[in-house]
Amino acid sequence: MKNIQLLSILGLVFMSVFTNCTTKDENIWFVKNETACAEAWYNEPWINPQPAVNAQTWLEMQGVTVLESEYDPAGTTPEACNACTCLSGGVYRIQVDAEFTDIMVSEGFIME
């Protein structure tokens, strides 16, 4: 839990420092460590067995135009706990236009 909070804070600090350097035409990669069961899309009826598709569908429902999406099931070390907010080890990588930065950050993604 503390790792997620730390990553969120670091992401916001990073965003505030570099937002002024970003142009509207720039494509940016964002990352998000997958949780055991706390992703916003986990309770949706359209859930897909491919995690990258789920993240992309959810973001598109939030108004984001996703340029590319990837999922690495072993992208980070999983946490040894049973809470939904524990990290599963998977990592989402999503590329979007810079104009969607605010939405990406509000959905828990950080700039790569």
Question: Keywords for this structure?
Answer:
alpha+beta, globular, 26% strand, 30% helix, 112 residues, 4 strands, 3 helices, Alpha-Beta Plaits, four-stranded antiparallel sheet
Write the layout of secondary structure elements.
Blueprint: H1 2-18, E1 27-35, H2 51-61, E2 66-72, E3 87-97, H3 101-106, E4 110-111
Antiparallel strand pairs: 1-3, 1-4, 2-3
Structure, briefly:
The chain is of the alpha+beta class and 112 residues long.
Explain how this protein is built.
The mean pLDDT is 86. It contains 3 helices and 4 strands, in the order αβαββαβ. With 112 residues, it is an alpha+beta fold. A 4-stranded antiparallel β-sheet has the order 2-3-1-4. Helices cover 30% and strands 26% of the residues. The protein has a single domain, classed as Alpha-Beta Plaits (2-Layer Sandwich).
- Dominant shape: globular
CATH topology: Alpha-Beta Plaits
Distance between the termini: 20 Å
Structural category is alpha+beta
Percentage beta strand: 25-35%
Strand order of the largest sheet: 2-3-1-4
At CATH's second level, what is the architecture? Answer: 2-Layer Sandwich
Arithmetic mean of pLDDT: 86
Alpha carbon gyration radius: 14 Å
**CATH level 1 class label:** Alpha Beta
Number of helices: 3
